[in-house]
Amino acid sequence: MTSSTALLTDRYELTMLGAALRDGTAARPSVFELFARRLSGGRRFGVVAGTGRLLSLLRDFRFGEDELRFLRDNHVVDAGTLTYLEDYRFTGSIHGYREGELYFPGSPILTVEGSFADAVVLETLALSVMNHDSAVATAASRMSIAAGERPLSEMGSRRAAEMSAVAAARAAYIAGFSATSNLEAGRRWDIPTMGTAAHSWTLLHDTEEEAFRAQIDSLGTDTTLLVDTYDIREGVNTAIRVAGTELGGVRLDSGDLPTVAAAVRTQLDELGATGTRITVTSDLDEYAIAALAASPVDYYGVGTSVVTGSGYPTAGMVYKLVARQDADGGWVAVAKASTDKGSKGGRKAAFRVLRDGVATSETVVVSDGFEALGSAAEHPDSRPLQVTLVDEGDIDASFEGAAGTAAARAHHLQVREELPVRALALSKSDPAIPTVFLDRD
Amino acid sequence: MTSSTALLTDRYELTMLGAALRDGTAARPSVFELFARRLSGGRRFGVVAGTGRLLSLLRDFRFGEDELRFLRDNHVVDAGTLTYLEDYRFTGSIHGYREGELYFPGSPILTVEGSFADAVVLETLALSVMNHDSAVATAASRMSIAAGERPLSEMGSRRAAEMSAVAAARAAYIAGFSATSNLEAGRRWDIPTMGTAAHSWTLLHDTEEEAFRAQIDSLGTDTTLLVDTYDIREGVNTAIRVAGTELGGVRLDSGDLPTVAAAVRTQLDELGATGTRITVTSDLDEYAIAALAASPVDYYGVGTSVVTGSGYPTAGMVYKLVARQDADGGWVAVAKASTDKGSKGGRKAAFRVLRDGVATSETVVVSDGFEALGSAAEHPDSRPLQVTLVDEGDIDASFEGAAGTAAARAHHLQVREELPVRALALSKSDPAIPTVFLDRD
Fold first, then answer.
1. Do A231 and B341 touch (CB under 8 A)?
2. Residue B327: CATH number of its domain
3. What are the residue boundaries of the Nicotinate/nicotinamide phosphoribosyltransferase domain, all occurrences included (chains A, B) (predicted)?
4. Which of A41, A169, A320, B342 is deepest in the core (most CB within 10 A)?
């Protein structure tokens, strides 16, 4: 298996490329836009994630001998197209929202410019990465808001496909989680890793006490013991008897968590273990986290709901041609006409308009003709949202890797502060701010 | 990046391993079981998928220099554990359901036997693969039943993370889909690939007619033209004018599909294009497919809903220690005691009991003591469900790759015939057959 990402692509992109090479339209300068028509699930804001991963995958978007052989043997494209693909690398430009940025319906999250040939083949890869990672980050941000100052750990790897799990850990971290249980995510992006113990650990031993003792012998007193394999009250007693009152923490993975957490806190305090922290982990989502706000919980471990976008596993973003040159070199804004899937043609510049530091609208300046697309100067209280990610094929490495991930997290936590208070509610509603399109033709 | 899969693992598995190596329990012969406590979403059956992928990933579950360095530098485990991991490869055995088999609550889908050390570290990888692929396959099988004889194509790559998309294409194929748009899935597992054209293809051109002409010049008359970029009626007229009545097909991606499909069929027939097929693709799920049963549709293209498990993106399977030896070498059946997450200890043998070829129960024989676990002979009308996937570290390659994928698909389509009629309904209900546990202690 090669490391090429070029076949993470829908077949029709390459057959369209083949037809466009044949009729000469492949060279037409084109602008594709990646955006969401709406926010899934009545969410009040979305969180852009995946950008840094996409840029790294774009570096490997090359058709090597193995990829070309598959396309040739399966008659996917003709010989002329194979020759084109042999030398393909993306030489266009991509502008877009910073990773970690908020988005709203119609926000031009990525703008991909190049020849039609350059840009059409990136559709699937770009959407796969951005739809998944943004869905996870959006859910994670809501959880992070609900958790307040209490740290959240992502522990959902087992409920996501093995490579999505790694990406989900990263997206959750960007959106405010503190750590992940996934070791590969730790290796790739320097995300702090954490873990406690499984029920199998206790069951492996003849008694709970032996299991706790062995864990402490190996990991020290500061570890977190899982106390609900048999009887929780007895488990807590055993934990403190074995570890002493300096025990780092206990984990609760079952039962009615507000009730159980309160009882365990009281018990720990009575035993003198006032510094022993309580981690809860049983099927938490943003609503369960919010419901635990008044409970004596120190850490949340979130699994299934965060890695599956808490009911909305894809952000529903699309990748559309919005402008292209005609045969005479004039720009034409384009959009599908059918009524139920309206999208807006034209190249766009986006600004978050603020008043006293609070976001009031997503303003998107649209220009078919590529004249001045508006600038921050025209909007004195606004913040321009787009940065250059790829400049004529040159990928900005600062958005990739561990550094890019850390920067995305910092950016998210910063811009989240601009949200109006109504954006923080968990119930379904309209987007927190309207998207305003300004035509500048 | 290495090709090792060893860090697709939750940190606690390695810290438990470290503690077990220290206290001597790492060597205890152990039995872990992968199973689902219930069927997600009121589904009437589940479909096992992922087994072939898991076996291939297991081949790469080795800790190389890169993995060991990460674990050392981040103080995940101690030096003794690193030494153990350096030589780790799975030397235990795995028995389990064939890929493509149906499952029900409590079905012992995988039984992993080995030392505790051998088996504990596979938890996350096994669950990641099986939970994702089985969720997709279960949704896909319902769609395939709803579609009847009409072929289904999987086109959802853009709505799943880039590597999950490849796995999802495979799972859908196993569960009855005919093809995928995903080229990497075609390369890896010889799954037929397909595609039509995007709206961007039409919008790239100055007129719809030019776009259609170019597509036909490149792909021949047998291609499928997307006719809903502007006005569908005009699009169909243009398509037949350009391609002639031998046009392969048209694709509809918007509107009220039953209405639109009927109108387009009438129009095509009036134009003499009686053999031109209609493909529909707009946000289909099993319910929309069923609702189109009486419409003149020839092919379904399914995206978001199949790759996200149609509302249930994870199968919710768990991986539990069910039996282990004690210090004297006697077997002990184990299970967590807490009331809300009951699981059944002991090693298990599973049979599908049939009457006149129709499944009537999932019979699971449980034995703590490893005496005779029941055999097919005891159940004359039953079919044993478990096969050997890994025999003392030796992985059966026949379940992997393209051949394994094709075998899984054939097996699924065959055993689906055993389902009672009530299992085919799409509404939420109880499992189609009960799971009966027989204790043989």
1. no
2. 3.20.140.10
3. 152-319
4. A169
* Nearest chain B CA: its distance from A125 CA (Å): 6
Sign of the Cα torsion B165, B4, B129, A144 reads negative
Q: Which of A15, A164, A183 sits opposite B161 (nearest CB)?
A: A164
Rounded to whole angstroms, the Cα distance separating B264 from A117 reads 32
pLDDT of residue B369: 46
pLDDT over threshold 90, residue B370: no
* Interval A345-370 mean pLDDT: 88
Q: Are residues B379 and B290 in the same domain?
A: no
Q: What whole-number distance in Å separates Cα of residue A237 and Cα of residue A271?
A: 8
B316 chain-A contacts, CB cut-off 8 A: 159, 304
List the single residue in B7, B57, B321 with the smallest CB-CB distance to A204. B321
Which is it for strands B382-384 and B152-154: parallel, antiparallel or unpaired?
A: unpaired
Same domain, B164 and B282: yes
Question: Which candidate in A1, A4, A12 is best for mutational testing of the B interface (most B CBs within 10 A)?
Answer: A12
Residue A6, domain member (yes or no): no
- The reported pLDDT for the residue numbered B439 is 85
- pLDDT tens-digit readout, A203-237: 999 999 999 999 999 999 999 999 999 999 999 99
* Same domain, yes or no: B296 and B346: no
pLDDT of residue A381: 82
* Residue B4 in domain: no
Which residues on chain B are in Cβ contact (under 8 Å) with A11?
Answer: 181-183, 186, 193-195
pLDDT in tens, B192-239: 999 999 999 999 999 999 999 999 999 999 999 999 999 999 999 999
Q: Report the DSSP beta bridge partners of residue A44.
A: none
Report pLDDT for A368. 57
**What are the C-alpha distances in Å from B346 to residues A38, B97, B324, B424?**
49, 17, 9, 32
Pairwise CB contact (< 8 Å): B8 & A166: yes
Is residue B375 predicted with pLDDT exceeding 80?
Answer: no
Which residue in B127, B306, B55, B54 sits closest to A156, CA to CA?
B127
pLDDT value, residue A379:
63
Q: Is residue A143 included in any domain, yes or no?
A: no
Question: Has residue A90 got a pLDDT over 60?
Answer: yes
Number of other residues whose CB lies within 10 A of the CB of residue A156: 27
pLDDT of residue A234: 97
Query: Any idea what the CATH number is for the domain that residue B303 is in?
Result: 3.20.20.70
Give me the mean pLDDT over the A267-294 stretch.
97
Whole domain around residue A262: which residue ranges? Answer: 150-306
SS3 content of chain B, % helix, strand, coil (to 5): 40, 20, 35
Concatenating the DSSP letter of every residue in B147-168 gives HTTS-EEE--GGGS-HHHHHHH
Report pLDDT digits (tens) over A240-262.
999 999 999 999 999 999 999 99
Q: Give the whole-angstrom CA distance, residue A134 versus residue A297.
A: 28
- The confidence score (pLDDT) of residue A375 equals 54
Q: Which amino acid is at B218?
A: S
Residue where a domain terminates, one of A259, A291, A306:
A306
Which chain A positions have a beta carbon within 8 Å of B219's beta carbon? 15, 18-19
Query: Looking at the predicted structure, is the pLDDT value of residue B340 above 70?
Result: no
Within 8 A of A166 by CB-CB distance, chain B residues are: 8
Contact A20 B327 (CB under 8 A): no
B259: exposed, middle or buried (C-beta count within 10 Å: 0-12, 13-18, 19+)?
A: exposed
Last residue of a domain, one of B286, B311, B336: B311
pLDDT above 70: residue A163: yes
- Percent of chain B scored above 70 by pLDDT? 95
Average pLDDT of chain A, as a whole number:
94
Q: Is residue B57 part of a domain?
A: yes
User: How do beta strands B382-384 and B358-367 pair?
Assistant: unpaired
Q: What would the two tokens of residue B38 be?
A: 């219930």
